[in-house]
Structures are given as C-alpha cells and as structure tokens.
Amino acid sequence: MSHNFQFLTWEDVKNLDKEKTVILLPLGSIEQHGPQNPIGTDYLISSYIAEKSSEKNPMAYCLPPIPVGVSSHHRNFPGTLWFSPEVFRSIIKEIFLALKHHGFKKIIVVNGHGGNTASIMEVIGEFNDKHDFVSLLFEWWKDEKILEEVIGHSQVIHADEVETSVIWAVNEEYVKKEKFENLTSSPKWGRYIGDLFLSSRTDQFTESGIAGALNNISRENGLKILEECIKKLDRHIDLLSKY
C-alpha cells in the first residue's frame, strides 16, 4: 500500500492504526529563489524529505504539500505567491481538525520555508495544549551539526550555496547550472541602518534575490544533507509513533 496519503482509499484510511500512525504535512512556499533555482524550491525540498521518510517508515503517511506560504516579503520578484499569516494559520488548523476528526493523533509538519515558522508554531502550540493531539515541527536547515559536517558552517540564508545544493540534489533538472558563474548575493538577510534591522523585503537588499554564501554549491553536498535529514526525520517518526 502506498504511503502517499492521496493514493489511499477511504477504506485504507479507516483501517490505519490511528494510535501509531504519524502523518507528515510538507509545507513550503512559491517564491523567488534567485535566477538559478525554481520558485517552488521550499516545498519541493520539504515534500521530497517527507515522501522519502514515509517510504522507509511503515507508520508514516505523507500528505500532499501545501505549496504556498507566508512570503509577501518576496512579492516584488515575479512569480511569488503568498498567504497572509492569518490565512496560513487557518489552513493548517483546518487540516489538523480534519485529521483529528478521522482519529489521527500524531503529525509532523515538515516545513521548507522560514517565513512559515512562527505561524506553524502558533498552531502547533494551540493544538498540543487543547487537544488529544501531538504535533511537531521539522525544518531541515535547523540541524547545525549536519551542516557543519557537510558544508563547514551552519548559516543558511536564502537561495545560497546550501539551499541551491539541496534543491540540486532533489532533482538535477530543477537548477540552472549555467547561472552559477555570475550569481551575486547579499552577505546577510535584511535591510539595516547600522545594526538596526529595518525590513526583510527582499528587493530592498538583494538584486538577485539571493542572500548568503555561494562559494560551495555542490550536488554531492546536497545529497549528503538530504540523506542525514531523512535519517533524522525517520528517528522523529519512530519516537512519535511509539509515544
């Protein structure tokens, strides 16, 4: 039986062990990721990690991704789509409530976009507090140990060497390698006056849409990061399933 939720029948879902089953919900964004990466980078990475983990773990089932996220700060780059934080939180809540209605009690949100984090954590906090329901957040770029071992640093900003390496590893055809040679980047995220942060509207501080280092773009590095992130998510699934 498939572990992609959309391919199950209603009878398949009815027969799942709701006490042990862990639902994976991939989230991301449709937003610019520089001239070299697709606008779907965030949700493509999160759904890849979630799907690979569900294939390996008999107690995990992966929902289809929600591709649009909280991304209005990228709005002046063509192609970017966004929800307001209020709408985004409402969508996550409705999915959680539907899963709860069907008897599911455990969910891991696999998020690929930092702009979503605050909204996700608000919903997770509310549900864990008020319902017989356990939800967790997994974000691939938050594991400093993995990044230090593979890249040599743990700073991930936007469409930089880390994110480009990872989406390249997801699918070689997703990236425009011919763009690599002439990429430009902002060294940090945001617009500042001195040390005072003013804005995260991307077009105000990076012409290319990229922020962060670009010295070490490597598909091999991306594959290593993905492998370790999938292993880590597998461990989370095992722990939550037995909880």
From TrEMBL:
Matching SUPFAM superfamilies: Creatininase (SSF102215)
One example GO MF annotation: hydrolase activity, acting on carbon-nitrogen (but not peptide) bonds, in linear amides
One protein family per Pfam: Creatininase
InterPro entries (alphabetical): Creatininase-like_sf, Creatininase/forma_Hydrolase
Cofactor: Zn(2+)
Protein keywords: Hydrolase, Metal-binding, Zinc
Gene3D superfamilies membership: Creatininase (3.40.50.10310)
GO biological process per UniProt: riboflavin biosynthetic process
Full protein name: Creatininase family protein
Organism for this UniProt entry: Candidatus Heimdallarchaeum aukensis
